[in-house]
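Support request, please re-run this one:
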Amino acid sequence: MRAEILASWQRSQRLGIASEGAELPVESDLDPESRLVRAAAPVLRRLYERFSGMPVTVALADARATIVDRRGERRGLELMDSAFLVPGANVDERFMGTSSVSMVLSTRSPFVVVGHEHFLHDLKTLTCMAAPVRDPVGGTVQGAVNLSVPMELAEPGMATALQEATDRIGERLLELSSARERALVESFLRARRQGGHAELDLRSEGPTGPRGTAPELAPGEHLALLEAATELISSGGRPFAEVPLAGGRVAVLRRRQLHHGDAEGAAVEVGFHGGAGGDAPGGTDTTSATTAIAPDRRRVPLLRPPSATGREESGARSTPPTERSPADTRPDSEPSSESDSEPDSEPGGRSDAWLLLVGEPGVGRLAVAARRRLSLLNEAGTRVGTTLDMRRTAAELAEIAVPEFADVAVVDLTEDVLTGREPRSGPPGTGTTLRRVAVRPRGEPGDRDEDPAGTVDYPAGTPQARCLAAGRPVADSVPTAALADPTTGSEHPVDLLGQGTHSYLGAPLRVGDTVLGLVGFYRRGRDHPYEEDDLTLAGELAARTAMSVDNARRFARERDASLTLQRSLLPRETPRSTAADLAFRYLPADPDTGVGGDWFDAIPLSGTRVALVVGDVAGHGLQAAATMGRLRTAVRTLADLDLPPEEVLAHLDDLVGRTPDDPATAATCLYAVYDPVSCRCTAAVAGHPPPAAAPPGEEPYLLDLPTGPPLGFGRFQPYESAAVDLPAETLLALYTDGLLKEGRAYGDPDSRTGRLLEVLRDASSSLETECDRITDTLLSGDSHDDVALLLARVHALPPDRVASWELPADPSVVARARAAARRCLDAWGLTELEYGTGLVVSELVTNAVRYGGAGPVCLRLLRDEESLICEVSDRSSTSPRIRRAATTEEGGRGLFLVARFTRNWGARYTPEGKTVWAEQTRSPTVREPGPDADERTLLAAFGDLDDL
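Re-run finished. Output below.
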């Protein structure tokens, strides 16, 4: 069974309709001369005659599903009578269950119900096909034509003939409307025929005429007048309206009732009052009438009521607007005194009025509805998609749809769209998860949106499921009984509308062939069902929203990728260091993207030292972040080589200078190394602001450092470093220039630097608090540059944690060095490290004696919180390296042993030579060999330590 039929059966069963014989309500007071019946009668007669001799029945139902006409041979009519399908019977789904007419009025499209698909048993031998009858003027469904035939006689050509018949009925509806409109215009022309002519083209900017120019209209004012006129015609009762114009003028619109035989309509006149030029300038002749070009390009008269003298001569009497009745214009006669009701008189006895619009109330309502749809589209163009947030975009669509277009609007998006993933092409599959992101019920202004209800599931056969599968707008009715289906869930928006059956319109959010989600519009009850024009409007609204949602999805995906890159490039937490306590802040210029080119780092170095780095790449976004990542990686690599700060910047400059088109050519950098043993900070600058220092109890100041050119321009000037002694507990502030900028300009750098030093003067003990104080004081809400701030409170390594010895360059000192190290470890309580330390000291001192050149050898031990560092310095610049010794070689295994018994080792260069260091953990992860068998095994493999 088809999904639509199954869903209709389920609704019919929930409504408790008896399939053996439903009791249909019958309306006895039918209008046999209604516009629909008159338009359809000859067409239905020809359709029935086309199948003469066949047991075919033809029935016409109006928009409320009431049968207003039927034709057929005797057996077919008897079958309809037995099923209570008589003229006046209502065949809506609420009363007779699933039928072709109810499906057409529900879906607003042709439908065929075959045999057992009928809910009533009396109709299961028939094939019933129905098609909607639409008014060509507004696209509204005026009714439906049903063609019933025994199942075995049904042919495809019958559906084609039925469609041709409904199209012809629609054409006849248009012919009838046009005839009535022409009768109104002709009646009005005869009643108001006068001499002289001037023209008012509502499509131009204002009225003009040979005898003078009427009051000018500002751009768009004539459209406002036309809108007000259509509102008056469609209102039926309201006789006047005022439209304020530029310059303090007011346009007064008057509605005049017209009669011509059985045709009734209205005309709207407009007069202008107040402000400069409120009177129509021109000659003194006030008796000439005018004509206008109406919106449909017809030429109609512009009303100019008779002057006071003319009224006295014709015996016309004036009636106040509050007492007179609508004007009655009769054909082939002069206007009566009532039809020439009181004019809008200006001081001096002259007045001008122009005919603005002539039409029927029904046509006026269509025009108003069309204008409202256009207005809704214009509003959607300005209000939907104002941000790159998918949920906000969905809420904006719901806000403009309620209450103008719907009583409740809901928006559902697929899970892939919300997470930023690329949705698959085509309609969503059966396993696709939809998540409700916006619900907007009708209510008083200021009511808050209902909270979305999470994931939703639409069973097969529901209009929502059909809309997603077809990828086009779908209109249907949704009964409250659908809430009883447990698969629908209590979050169904119908519960916001109350009991009954409500009109539904669903439109898919599509971009190309990809469906991103679904927007659903609900109207309370069935008095105003969604029509063909509404389907078009909903499709356009959904298309515009889908583009904004897709843009937001793409932005979210790019933003997530950028943030992931940024998070991977910047420190995720405060680095731990013995040399300094650290805190940082990174504030991107665009908080929505969170991506920029500023960076900072704290890199542990050998000898408990720490490297502090701050850099700035010009620009924002993904490209700046990627460039920053390359530079930060290069800095870390160079820092691992233990190069001096000026050499680090020189290598960075060389890296940037190789690619002159790279945005990193506008990069700056500050690289500083702090040694807690000597309490000395050595720093070099590449076009970057100098750091600020706040020693305890002293005035803050900027470090006096030689400033080199930005990275990429170092070939013009070499980089230099400077060393500064810092007392323990000194606060260092490293930052990018965004901290010193004010808005889009730099402002006064000296004053902002002074403010920074002021904040540091009263530095708190908490570095996190200090970061907040600095950013809150120096940054405003309109910052347009990224800011990186790194604070370091430096410490001094206590003297009792440092031990050093100066030894002559003689092989005999190796044993003395091991003994001195062993005694130091005993004093520090690190006896568990004596074996490994003895091995390291032996190897490093031996190498320094053999290859370090002339001069003394310096041995130093540093005790950190978690490690022990052994350093040996000599006068040579030759770097040691590990090599794999052959089995027959006696040496070459010493550094291999050092690497085996330590966590890390390396070498750094100094102006006097080099320092080779090795670091052991105080809780070693590698068990030291025992003094007997393990020691002999190592000695057997690598030789006697005393020979090293």
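The CA atoms of residues 602 and 612 lie 5 Å apart. The longest strand covers residues 250-260.
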